[in-house]
Each structure stands twice: as C-alpha cells, then as structure tokens.
Amino acid sequence: MPSDRASKEGNRTVVECHSVVKSFGSVHVLRSVDLEVRESEVLCILGPSGAGKSTLLRCINHLEGIDGGWIKVTDQIIGYELRGNKLHELSERAVRRQRGLCGMVFQHFNLFPHFTALQNVMLGPVEILKQPRGEVEARSRLLLDRVGLASKVSAYPSQLSGGQQQRVAIARALAMNPRVLLFDEPTSALDPEVVGEVLRVMLELADEGRTMIVVTHEVGFAREAADRVAFMFEGRITEIGAARAVLEKPSEARTAEFLSHVLV
Amino acid sequence: MRSHDGAGAQPGRSGSTSLTAGGVPPFEPTSAGGRASTYEIVRRKHPWRFAAAIVVLLLLALLLYGAANAHQLHWSVTGHYLFNRAVLVGVLRTLEITAAAMMLGLALGVIFGIMRSSHNPVLRGVAWLYVWAFRGTPIILQLFLWFNLALIFPRVDIPGIVHGTTVNIITPFLAALLGFGINEGAYMSEIIRGGLLSVPPGQTEAALSLGASHAWTTRRIVLPQAFRVILPAIGNDTLQMLKLTSLAAFISFNELFGTTESIYYANSEVIELLLVAGAWYLVASSVLSVVQYYVERKFGRGFQRGRQQALVERLALRAMARLRTRAV
After folding, report:
1. 10 Å Cβ neighbour count for B267?
2. Tell me, what's the ipTM?
3. What is the CATH number of the domain that holds B285?
4. A50, B43, B92, B113: least surrounded by Cβ within 10 Å?
5. What global pTM score does this model have?
6. Chain B within 8 Å of A162 (Cβ-Cβ)?
7. B171 in any annotated domain
8. B210 vs A158: CB contact, 8 Å cut-off?
C-alpha cells in the first residue's frame, strides 16, 4: 500500500547520485543530476524521450561511464575509486563485482535466445558467481514460479510472448540477488494486453520491499507502486516528490504539461 | 437468366455493368451452373514446359550416348582405379589437409575477427593488414612462398619449440597447411566479424549487467549466436577448400588430384583418372553438405522453426507438397 511506503525517510540510502554529468560528444545527456533512493523505496522516473532517463540508469550500473560527479550504490562509488581528490577508473574486475549490486531489466528484455528460460535465470549465479548448480536450479525454478512461468522453464525465448520474456528477464535479474533493481522502460516494447502481467510482478516486488528505480511511461503504475516520482527534462531532475503529490498537483509547469499529454 | 447487353446499356445500372467492359460475361452465382461451391477448377496447361524438358533430355541422352560410345575412353580403367590403394590414400590426404586447413583458418579467423572488432586501433590495424595481404594475393603464390621458405630462412630456431633446417621442417604438408590455413583465416576473419556484428548489442549489455567479463560474454553469449550466422559461410568455405586443396599438387603434396595426376603421367589414361578424382570430390562434397545441414540445425536451437529449416529441408518439403497436389 502506498500509505505504508510513505515513511522510508529513515531507511538507509542505497543509491546516491551527486552532480552527475554525462555527455556523448557535444550532446549533454545528463546535466548535474542529484538523486537519493533509500532502502525499500520505489522511485519512478518520468519524462519525455531524450531527457536522459535511460542514460541515468545505465550510469548507475556503469554500462556508461560518467564525465562528472559521482554515483554511490550502498557505500561504493560506482566505476571509480577516490584516491586523493581524484576519481580513478576501476579495473574491469572491480566494475564487474559492483554490477552485482544492481539488477537491470531492459526495454527489449535482452534474454539470451540460445538458452531456455531456466538457463537464462541460472547462467549468472552458476557461471559468474560460481554458486553450486543444484542450489541455483532450485532457487531459479522458484523464481520462475513466482513470476508465473513454472510451466515455461524449458521454453526458449522465441517461444514466449513479450510479457513472458520480460518476466523471465525479471527473474534473471532477481537471481543475482541485487540490492537495487533498475527497470529501463520495461513495458514500452510490449503489446498492450500483456503490459498488465509485467506490472503486476513489479508491483509484487515493490510490496515485498525491493528497492527499485523504474523508468516508465506508465503513470498508472507510478501512482500505484511508487513512493516517489521524479521528472526529468533535458538532463536534469526538475521535480521530485511523493508520488501522489507530484502526479496530482505538480508544481512545475513542464511536469503538468507532460502529464496532460500522457494522461489523455 | 438475364441477357447481357454490354456496358452502360441500361442507364440506371451503369455502375454495375461497367465492370464487364472487358467483354467477359458477369459472374452470376445463380446461373445454370449451380452453386458456386461445386465448380470444378481446371488448371492452366503448360505445354512449353514439356517441350523444354524434352529438348533438354534429348541433349542429355546424346551426351551420355557419346560418352558411352567414345571408344577412346576406357571406362574399365576408371572403374579399376576408383578403389585403387594409392587413390584412396590420396582421398584421405585431401580430407586431412582440408580439415587441418579449415581448423587453422577458423582459429585464425576467430582471433583476427575479434581483433578487427576491437576498440584497440593497433589490434584493428594489424588484423586489417593480415586480411589485406592474404586476401589480396593468389593462393598458389602463397603456397609457393611457404614451400620455398628455406630460400630466405635456411634454419628455423624457435627456443623450446623447433630447431632445424627449414627444408626438413617445412614438409609439403606443412607448407600446404600454412598456405591454405592462413589464407582461409583471412576470409574467415571477415565472416566472423560479420557474425559478431549480427548479434544485437543488447545481448552484450545484458551479460555485462549480470557482472560478466568481456571474455565470458564473447564465449558464452556472442559467439554462439554469431555462429548461427557464420556456419553457412563456413560450410561454403569448407566445400571450396576441399576442391582448392588440389592446388597442393603443385608443391608436391600428393593429395587426391596429385595422385591421379602422377598415375596418368605413367599410363597416359588422362581423362579416365581425372574422372576418378572427380567422382571422389563429388562424393566428399556431398557428404560435407549433409554434415553441414545437421551442424546448422544444432546451432539453430532457440530460434524459430521457420529459420531453423535448412534449404535442403525446405526444398524437400516443397517438392513433397507439390507432388501431393499433383497426385490428387
């Protein structure tokens, strides 16, 4: 219930962005982003395309490096190490270890097509974290069961619908036991009739107390699941606050205008 | 039954009758023929297909007749040498050098293909140079270069691996292997590069986001998917290599072609022995085609059935479907 989630002020910070700057050549994608997400909090990021929402997520698990500021997940600076007063880029091995902190769910699922649903979920824990296969398999079956795909364990991604694929992708991210889940427009590539099944799984995760950052266009989901909502415009977070307040009484004119387009 | 007066005869019905302007009577489902569902469908005849088939078959028969009656051609000699021991050894050597060269080519192709896709400009440049040099010169020239390496490097001394005179080390087999393998590697690296490009970048991102290394991602995620695209091309190259290895006869490596050649130098039954070699090349390439089909099917796992069907299977299914409709 959103009312239960309202009080996460006291929880410890899981993700912290401080003056994050990122540009691709001459295009400034992120112009000083500040953000704090606390344990068990669900933050939805809304905004027009090109605002830098996806880039921000990709910076949080260092799929992209940043050009200024810093990002912390738990107590670790992502991708860099502070020595003196300089941030030195970390080795590939150290970056890999940090990526375990975040689980990422992509717009286009990005399941591995040559592996079955179960293999997709097991691959990371078994081959990357080197956990014992038997244990991982039992846990992975449980995860697939939880996202409602117990009967599809041996199906290949091409045999699954978009909604089913995205649920496997969520199970794959969960199998790594991340501290925070990053969703990059998880329902934007789905047929309208299967959006609901994916959102339902995400809502369950939110209710369970998972820390989640969700880039989305689903205002309905934001209203129901998010503790806070952030609006991004042109590389900046222009408004952030309690979900209901921001969605119903935006203080910024641009937010109101964006919502009026989305809510038609 | 209504009479057909032609287009626009009745001013009030010009809209419907204008459709019949071509002179074909209008389709009337309730006319004397009965219900539409009972009409018989008469297929169009194709008289020219029969004519063309007969002409081609006649020509083929003439050719066979000519061959059978060519008294200069000793079929018995061809039959005799088909399972000759030396010829069979030649077949084996051809298969050996083909397999060895393709394996070397594949290994080099993977290495240089990945180098060409690298972010490191030096690696990319060196890989480009390799492809440029070995794809840009004739294979026969490369074979002769390796075979005659002793002329410029009389001795080979690689600490801990080989020591000796080049003439003893570079046997005809090794020269052929280096020549064909390194040449193939240049082509293969381009094939592999294309295959790597065919895998969507989201696959790499998904693997990296799980905390995978680049090496693991390449080995477990990218290459297996790339191979689905690469395999048909490798199959093609293998078939080509099988026949290309006949050039090794010129650097005194006695594979199938070289063996038959040395036999006809002795007995002057040139065409007969060339037919022996040709028969074996056909057998080997047919077997390879079948192998290729099954290997491709194995690597197609996880992809839609439609794409999984190899050309052979599609053609077979289509032919069967056609026969079935004929029979009915």
Report:
1. 11
2. 0.91
3. 1.10.3720.10
4. B43
5. 0.75
6. no
7. yes
8. no
